[in-house]
Amino acid sequence: MGGIMVKKLSNKQKLWLIIIIAAVAVILQYACGYPLFAQILVTVVGAIVALSMFIGMVKSIRTGDYGVDLLAILAVVATLAVGEYWAAMVILVMLTGGDALEDYAARKANTELKSLLDNTPQIAHVVTDGTTNDLAVKDVQVGAEVIVKPGEIVPLDAEK
Q1: Which residues of 139-150 are buried (b: 16+ CB within 10 A; e: fewer)?
Q2: What pLDDT score does 1 carry?
Q3: Which positions fall inside the P-type ATPase A domain (predicted)?
Q4: What is the 3-state composition of the chain as percent helix, strand, coil, each rounded to the nearest 5?
Q5: Of 119, 123, 121, 148, which is closest to residue 134 (Cα–Cα)?
Q6: Together in a domain, 50 and 113
Q7: How remote is the C-alpha of 153 from its chain's centroid?
Q8: What's the confidence (pLDDT) of residue 74?
């Protein structure tokens, strides 16, 4: 008998889910005239997301990684407790949006760093006894004379 497999949503997927639920809640309240259904939808989703964030926060604290998630969780719970479910939805959009943006920035930085590393020269033009030889960068000795041709990237740290 197999168990149910639950795939963890990415931060981008969480953001889209929150936006879609917010849109459905807006339609329920303002287009259909069912504010109670909108409030129930936002409250249930807000409570689930707050619980999910709380569990993630506890796991982070156990590993020594502290953040501002506690404030966000308290804000969501407090706004839901006093019936300000639209404020809770705004906080959820801000939180999931911030997490998605953080993931995007980290991915972009990784891509750029990988690109820089991939473009580092693998050979150096080393002058030995008046002739130029191509050597692997790792094989160039300290003090060797290296030529950098126009348009090339300097393959090694150097003086002068």
Answers
A1: ebeeeeebeeee
A2: 46
A3: 120-158
A4: 60, 10, 30
A5: 123
A6: yes
A7: 31
A8: 87
Q: What is the pTM of this model?
A: 0.69
| CA-CA-CA-CA torsion sign (16, 19, 22, 23) | negative
Write out the two tokens for 127. 């002058």
Where in the sequence is the domain holding 56, given as residue range(s)? 11-117
The pLDDT, as a whole number, for residue 160 is 66
**Token output for 157:** 């740290």
Output the six-digit token pair for 82: 């006093």
- Could you write out the DSSP letters of every residue in 29-71? IIIS--HHHHHHHHHHHHHHHHHHHHHHHHHHHHTT---SHHH
- Straight-line distance from the first to the last Cα atom of the chain, in angstroms, rounded to the nearest whole number: 71
User: For the segment 74-121, what is each residue's pLDDT rounded down to a tens digit?
Assistant: 898 899 999 999 999 999 999 899 989 999 999 999 999 999 888 889
